[in-house]
Task: structure prediction
Amino acid sequence: MRLIKAGRRAIVGSIVVATAMVGVHSAEAVGLAETKTVLTATSATNPPPAGQTVYLRASVKPVVGGVRLPWAM
Amino acid sequence: MGNVTFFDGATSLGSAPLVTAPSGVRVATLQKAFAAGTHSLTARFPGDPTYAVSTSAPVSKVVTKAASKIVGSKTLGTAPGTYNIIGAVKPSTAGPLIPTGTVTIKVDNLNAQTVPLNSKGRGHITIPLANGSHTAVYTYPGDGTFLNSTASFPFTTP
Result:
């Protein structure tokens, strides 16, 4: 009888832990979308001489598995 | 939408706001002039409550030394019969950087003197000169940012 009760407690405990883990993973997945930042640096001449303006452009995109997503509103 | 911070190595170059381009992509831009050398540039999006932080792959940008030029001039010295012979070292094309180091000034092929450039890139010597035609020759050896240059400045006194 004791063995059965202990087994039941173990099963219930496992379910609770598993549920909690699923909950944590779900929160992470929903909370933050991955992003990818790409930088380009251009100038009037290449290579530019010192003092010439270099134009830095960073583009940021939400991505999941390498697929670009639209920004959330 | 937040900002993107640009870096040269570990040094921050500044931040710029993200704006939505016509293509729908969010972009941030920054204009910067660099000293000569190789620069490892990155951009970092710090993230927000919805989107995670991300840093770009580094972009290597080689910047060469810029050409310089020397503009000669003269003014009267404080002592009678003396003149200030001035050499202003400048970038050949307009830019925010100022040449540093020294300039060597030689008048009528005599007594070359090397003097430091001030914060405006100017150096001068003060010498006595007889009335007549003279020529100042300038030599700038260059620095970490600018290439060397020479110039000649013919003038008359008084």
